[in-house]
Specification:
The chain is α+β, with helices and mostly antiparallel strands and 195 residues long. Helix content is 37%, strand content 16%. The chain contains seven helices and six strands; from the N terminus they run αβαβααββααββα. A four-stranded mixed beta sheet has the order 1-2-4-3, with helices on both faces. Strands 5-6 form a two-stranded antiparallel ribbon. α2 crosses α4 (79-89) and α6 (139-153) packs parallel to α7 (183-194).
Length: 195
């Protein structure tokens, strides 16, 4: 992943969303909702083979969101804290690094999610009710993902999908799959064909 200061400055000067770039308003990583947003966004980026989570921008207008900006930015959003969230929630831990891009309004955190995915990452813990409310599941993508998991594993569940997924030789611990990433559906389709 590109990590030069020049690249990070360009990323925050002209933010945009793509398969490998996610833009979010200010997130409090010490709250349950903040942890859920960070974990889901980072796992979705990891399932797309890495990317960037740019924090501090309105995801519709792509303009800086100055409401909610922490007073002590580097103490509030840092690599150790974000990595601990990933380690707590990701079924397969992966590396993240927090760097900062600069533009006229100030510095903005960029969470860099490493590439190198071999199997998709899912959440190993069910999000709390408050976290689920702030991160709604997209119904169409969820239905499609649910159908593939049901086809591959024989399990059907409402709400979030819980499965041990023995077909893919993953850990036997339950995995909670969010449909945030359409990439997991593509990966599931490939696994069903090969099994």
């Amino acid at each position: 992943m590109e990590t030069s200061q020049e690249f990070l400055d360009r990323l925050v000067t002209n933010p945009s969303e793509s398969l490998n770039a996610e833009v979010k308003r200010w997130i409090d990583p010490n709250s349950a909702q903040g942890c859920a947003k960070i974990a889901i966004a980072c796992m979705a980026l990891r399932n797309r083979d890495g990317g960037y989570l740019v924090i501090g921008f309105d995801d519709r207008t792509l303009q800086p969101d100055m409401d909610g900006r922490p007073d002590f930015l580097t103490e509030t959003v840092h690599t150790d804290l974000i990595q601990s969230i990933i380690s707590k929630y990701a079924s397969i831990p992966f590396e993240v690094v927090v760097r900062f891009g600069t533009r006229s309004e100030g510095r903005f955190p960029v969470v860099i999610v490493s590439s190198g995915v071999r199997v998709p990452v899912a959440s190993k813990r069910q999000p709390s009710m408050s976290a689920r409310r702030c991160c709604p599941i997209r119904t169409a993508a969820f239905s499609w993902t649910k159908a593939w998991v049901s086809h591959c594993t024989g399990h059907t569940h409402s709400g979030l999908i819980q499965t041990t997924m023995p077909v893919w030789n993953l850990s036997a611990a339950p995995l909670w799959i969010s449909s945030k990433s359409g990439a997991i559906s593509i990966w599931l389709r490939g696994q069903c064909r090969s099994s």
